[in-house]
Amino acid sequence: MLRYWTAGESHGKTLLAVVDGFPAGIEIDTDSIDYDLRMRQGGYGRGGRQKIETDKVELLTGVWKNVSMGSPVTLQVINRDYKLEKLKELERPRPGHGDLTGAVKFLGSIRNVLERSSARETAVRVAAGALAKQILAEFQIECIGFVDELGGHQIHRQAGDIQQWRTLREQSEVYSLNPEQDPEIKQLIDQAEEQGDTLGGILEVHISGLPFGLGTHAQWDRKLDGRIAQAVMAVQAIKGVEIGLGFEAARRPGSQVHDPITYDADKKDTPSLGFERPTNNAGGLEAGMTNGQSLVVRAAKKPISTLRQPLESINLDTKQADTASYERSDVCAVSAAAIIIENVVAFEVAVAFCEKFGNDSISEMKARYDLFQQMAQQR
Amino acid sequence: MLRYWTAGESHGKTLLAVVDGFPAGIEIDTDSIDYDLRMRQGGYGRGGRQKIETDKVELLTGVWKNVSMGSPVTLQVINRDYKLEKLKELERPRPGHGDLTGAVKFLGSIRNVLERSSARETAVRVAAGALAKQILAEFQIECIGFVDELGGHQIHRQAGDIQQWRTLREQSEVYSLNPEQDPEIKQLIDQAEEQGDTLGGILEVHISGLPFGLGTHAQWDRKLDGRIAQAVMAVQAIKGVEIGLGFEAARRPGSQVHDPITYDADKKDTPSLGFERPTNNAGGLEAGMTNGQSLVVRAAKKPISTLRQPLESINLDTKQADTASYERSDVCAVSAAAIIIENVVAFEVAVAFCEKFGNDSISEMKARYDLFQQMAQQR
Amino acid sequence: MLRYWTAGESHGKTLLAVVDGFPAGIEIDTDSIDYDLRMRQGGYGRGGRQKIETDKVELLTGVWKNVSMGSPVTLQVINRDYKLEKLKELERPRPGHGDLTGAVKFLGSIRNVLERSSARETAVRVAAGALAKQILAEFQIECIGFVDELGGHQIHRQAGDIQQWRTLREQSEVYSLNPEQDPEIKQLIDQAEEQGDTLGGILEVHISGLPFGLGTHAQWDRKLDGRIAQAVMAVQAIKGVEIGLGFEAARRPGSQVHDPITYDADKKDTPSLGFERPTNNAGGLEAGMTNGQSLVVRAAKKPISTLRQPLESINLDTKQADTASYERSDVCAVSAAAIIIENVVAFEVAVAFCEKFGNDSISEMKARYDLFQQMAQQR
Amino acid sequence: MLRYWTAGESHGKTLLAVVDGFPAGIEIDTDSIDYDLRMRQGGYGRGGRQKIETDKVELLTGVWKNVSMGSPVTLQVINRDYKLEKLKELERPRPGHGDLTGAVKFLGSIRNVLERSSARETAVRVAAGALAKQILAEFQIECIGFVDELGGHQIHRQAGDIQQWRTLREQSEVYSLNPEQDPEIKQLIDQAEEQGDTLGGILEVHISGLPFGLGTHAQWDRKLDGRIAQAVMAVQAIKGVEIGLGFEAARRPGSQVHDPITYDADKKDTPSLGFERPTNNAGGLEAGMTNGQSLVVRAAKKPISTLRQPLESINLDTKQADTASYERSDVCAVSAAAIIIENVVAFEVAVAFCEKFGNDSISEMKARYDLFQQMAQQR
After folding, report:
1. How many Cβ pairs closer than 8 A exist between chain B and C?
2. pLDDT tens digits, residue range B53-97?
3. CATH architecture entry for C3-377
4. Which of B91, B135, B262, D167 has the fewest CB atoms lying closer than 10 Å?
5. Number of Cβ within a 10 Å radius of residue A107
6. Are strands D14-20 and D3-8 parallel, antiparallel or unpaired?
7. What is A218-239 written as a DSSP string?
């Protein structure tokens, strides 16, 4: 059972993710984790904090001579901006944040809640996902998250495979698959900044090379679509999740939604086992199980809740009307969210992968993977 | 810890839901469960099976003299159309169903998978949710699910509170909040039927009367938004989930998304504790916790995967191209989905409610609810 | 993930166990489940209820043409002695039962609690374990539970393997491995009955043929020794659990406790892989993982809490001193407990087995088992 | 839901415990955690490592101005003896350890397994338990673990309450409740050391001041006795667990086991609510729920598996007979185990306490505790 939890506050000493059930025998590539951490901090529209932090992962446990031991792996990202002990309580809850809900629920301070509910915590969710992707990489499973829409502006992706898309994403300051549209998107963000406003957007994740049969239909809480939806919706500021066509699937007739099944014997040694689909409207999941096609997940991120031009709020002590408190923040973190969503989805896929193929040692997993492909071909 | 699992096949003897952690001391209203079961079977566009089944719940365990005992409650819905032992294997997997994914994953038969992945199973998810709503009802928390869009056709809901909406839903053959639009919607469904096609749609759930503080921000897997998203996406045929504004939130600037906070001392004895929000774009959840406003969840249901005009598929034994198998099915089950989504969301809310207020006995829960409202007022 | 829960009251309509995650493709042998159910009802010293009930399992879900489908399997045992609706509340809590604890915790009736906490519920725990043993049987893993001590009287087991022990257990009216001692044990029970008293005893379970590596050392809640201890201690009336030497291990020096490791190439194709141990003081578990030797678990069952010569208690309404209520009961159920403990231990072993080898289909599990044995030989 | 996991290797950089669901508003007393850490390192018979380490806890997350925030609390204990990167693989598995089981299961190195399965990990289990005891302390619930038997030598405890016992334990170099017996016990340990052997023993934990109703009878995996047994048996080197009379309960007739119920109105404002029991053979648990009496748990610890006079083993690479590897170790760690068992039991009790009374804020928990006592008195 692969699983993880995080700990840490926005301005606390450190952020941690403990990844339990990580298979033994994988040589850990910390550079690729750091790459995702750096990407999470980037993207056009970020504020001052990202200049303070230069997140790097440290592996505290679970690794010997850089190879996973089968023990829990602890990923640490130190907060350079550690100042929690000097910070004060907030008085005026910021709409959209957990300030009000948490202060009431816990009958306590706003600071307690905002420090933990802050999106800063996603640094270690990214680290956990980036670690999990190293399992997937052993099986040539590749992942990418990108920005598909920003501030209501649709971006027209260029054609390509995940490798090519990754290059495009590198070239785009907003992490889209069309760097040529960057100027118009950056202008949108600049305008929002001038107005003291913030912007949201839509992220898309693709995972290719997946075998059949991750997830199961047999019990509601084990279906992979549900588990992915949980992981995505539980990310700060996410208000919508789609798989494959998503909401569009609800608007088309069935004949234009379901993906025909064909068979191509030449591809029987690929993850699809030769079962090809001319379309992938299902986004790679049917009945909560992977179907040999790419996984496609989309997420809607609302604009950042902290506005320089603050929203109407109250003073929680006096109950008098006032404007919301302001703490340093970004104008737009949609690009970062592309990286975050990529990683939380990848983690759930890795969980399902470990359920199917085990998680004791990578050598046993590989032998089992081959075995399954053989047995499935002969089914 | 309130939790549930289901068991049972589409054409098996029986369907069961075991609800563990249901509080003691609640007088069970089976009529209201049967009402939801009947609603799930109805709606314009259903096929022959719904005429065979007249689902009624039977409480097998956990109840003494019609009052809950604190033991697991088992809800049974008998399949009148029990014929599993006589049924044959399918050869041509139906696109959109789990036929292919499951046959490969389990290295076995399509029948094994379709019998369990069938939406027939949602009968007992509805029963479990309808039972959980009886906890919520003790606290004047009310729920409704309705059809907001069908086959790409937007329905313009009439204004009202949940009670009034329920009356409207009763009057609508498609379970919308605008019975006057029924004729156009029914015509859409009739057309699809003529063409051997199927239709999907968009469902919306509202839950009112919720107190502050259900769910928590503190760990990703305990956030209520994530747990609701899982429950919804794990329903058969659902491909998208939104909370509050959902994807629309990604398209607006922050100033038009976040809900201002005001205080109205006259309402301090209501679940909102006087913290009023002129808008509810957050859909009642901030940082994964309820904020005293109504919960609003939306789901996208794809069209039914079984088409009378079958899709392109293969024979799984010979790998030769063929049309998909056909098993008796509906043209449109969007109305049913409104009931299903209402109930799976209600169940998760009840889970979070029991986490906050306990689940030993309803008398203790009520006293604690009052205690929390008092303490929260004085925070 | 193999898991199960039960539902049902002592005098309710029915008892149920839902077994989720049971692999597809196993032909179910209900006779062997019924055998264990019958054994659970037998043993010298049982009272009137066992004459009323003749437990037989019914498979309600998860099976097609008698073969498991990969869906949840529901096991039902009907209560012939269904009379819950006619029963009355108890007033005088019986020491040793949950009567007092539950009535206070749930702020409610004693009846509510006793109906669920009754050992009658173990019928379906036995059924679940007997089902799980059918997974183990596919791998020549064999289980037995027997009485090692009764009423303080040690029974001297005869030598043999599990098959021979099963024959001995069949011949013993008290389910010991020495039928010749039956007369003295039965006399003990008869004496207790005459005195209106009850007797407890010590059970032992052996499971042979286990491969290496079930369970893991890596996280406290995944260690197999802990999980077995939970399953055993959670059985009604159990107050102690031992693995291998158990408490005796605490009394010997290390040189007389730890099992030397030898290697016998002739046995490298057996589950032990050739790693032989001249002793098995560890009871088959080192660091929470199976070590290729037989699993040995022992449990202490206290005497039945319901005494015909009732204990001192109070009237819960008046708080006045009184004797405890009496409901029909047995004098000694130690033999039954041998069957129960065998089955709850077997279930946990099957859980760990499915964690190691997967639980999609028995064909894939078998191929993986062989694969692991090969890879492990070459380690 | 209060829960915890640990991470870290014996000779790695650090050991960590993440405690999730810890209530907000508790002022953390790190001294008391350090006290338990120091005690865990002490006791007569320890070896060289304990001189190197002087464990102190560091709170990495979840605390603001020394008060818990409702976020996950991370407890860190740094390994001064960090040298993992310089260590070599072992070749000759040590009987009693996970060396052989783990190397086979993970198809990998012995070092990987021993580093994680080492009892060094219990440092942070102790820290987690010591933190959890600070919840219990808010409700005047007190805990002690002590050595009852060592190397087969029974120690005759002096009478007293938990406070007095704690003083006695302080005075005893072996953490017994009879410092006067220390000389004979120390002599036993000295003898074992001379012989290159090791000793085990029996630990006992008492927790007083517990309210009614922690745990539940309603589902097997929620019973408190089972959960405690898991926590205890999952501790390194534990081979047996008892609650109350334990195995002795199996040897007495029922009339001498079950604890009569009396009522003393003068004590109705105490945790027992006035329901007194002249004996406490049940050890505070009936039907998996606390009954207002002290919890009594016993555990059997086997002797340390690493012997200076090594056991017979093999070279795992050559399969040739050889003696087991030796890594620096203690002669007797029974005293340490008393502290460990105290803390793992305390953690499970705190989990059940939070289930009953919630875990959002300590202020709400206290109000609910009082509310329950009132309601329970009037039942």
Report:
1. 142
2. 789 999 999 999 999 999 999 999 999 989 999 999 999 999 999
3. 4-Layer Sandwich (3.60)
4. D167
5. 20
6. antiparallel
7. SSGGG-HHHHHHHHHHTSTTEE
- Residue type (1 letter), A373: Q
Count Cβ neighbours within 10 Å for each residue of C157-190 and write b for 16 or more, e otherwise.
beeeebeebbebbeebbbbbbbbebbeebbebbe
Tens-digit pLDDT profile for residues C184-218:
999 999 999 999 999 999 999 999 999 999 999 99
**Any chain C CB within 8 A of the CB of D218?**
yes
User: Distance between alpha carbon C334 and the CA centroid of its chain, in Å?
Assistant: 11
Residues of C in contact with D95 (CB under 8 A): 258-261, 277
The whole-angstrom separation of Cα A306 and Cα A294 is 36
Q: Which amino acid is at D94?
A: R
Cα C161 to chain centroid distance, Å, stands at 20
Name D235's bridge partners. Answer: none
Name A221's Cβ contacts closer than 8 Å, sequence gap at least 6.
Answer: B5, B230, B234
* Chain centroid to CA A138: 20
A44-56 mean pLDDT: 80
Q: CB–CB of D243/C233 below 8 Å?
A: yes
Q: CB of C107 within 8 Å of any CB in chain B? A: yes
- Return d(Cα A104, Cα A9) in angstroms, integer: 19
Nearest-angstrom CA–CA distance, B289 and A96: 11
Of the candidates D261, D273, D324, which has its C-beta nearest C312's C-beta? D261
Interface of D with C in 271-330 (CB under 8 A): 273-275, 277, 282-283, 286-292, 300-305, 307, 309, 311-314, 316, 319-321, 324
Partners of B21 on chain D (C-beta within 8 Å) are 218-219
Question: Which residues of chain A does D113 touch, with a Cβ-Cβ cutoff of 8 Å?
Answer: 69-70
Separation of alpha carbons A178 and A204, rounded Å: 14
Alpha-helix runs per DSSP H in A195-274 = 224-233
Q: Where are the domains of chain D?
A: 3-377
The length of chain A is 379
Chains that touch A (3 or more CB pairs under 8 A): B, C, D
Q: What is the pTM of this model?
A: 0.98
Counting one residue from C and one from D, how many pairs have CB atoms under 8 Å apart? 383
> Nearest Cα to A360, choosing from A67, A5, A71?
A71
B83 φ, ψ (degrees, to nearest 5):
-155, 20
Q: What are the tokens at B304? A: 């039914």
Length of chain D counted residue by residue: 379
Closest CA to D22 of D103, D148, D128: D128
User: CA A296, CA A288: separation in Å to the nearest integer?
Assistant: 13
Assigned token pair, D276: 């007194």
CB B60 within 8 A of CB B78: no
**Both tokens assigned to B128:** 């479990």
Beta bridge partners of D7: D16
> D75-120: per-residue pLDDT in tens?
999 999 899 999 999 999 999 999 999 999 999 999 999 999 999 9
Residue A16, chain B, CB below 8 Å: the answer is no
Residue C270, token pair as written in the block: 């057996």
Instruction: Find chain D residues with C-beta within 8 A of A115's C-beta.
Output: 64, 69, 71
d(CA D197, CA D184): 17
Q: Express each pLDDT in B327-352 by its tens digit.
A: 778 999 999 999 999 999 999 999 99
DSSP SS3 for C122: helix
Scanning every residue of chain A, which has its alpha carbon at the shortest distance from the alpha carbon of B337?
A250
3-state secondary structure of A241: strand
Closest CA to C190 of C151, C237, C152, C156: C151
Q: Residue B243 CB: number of other CB atoms within 10 A?
A: 27
* Segment holding C14, helix H or strand E: strand C14-20
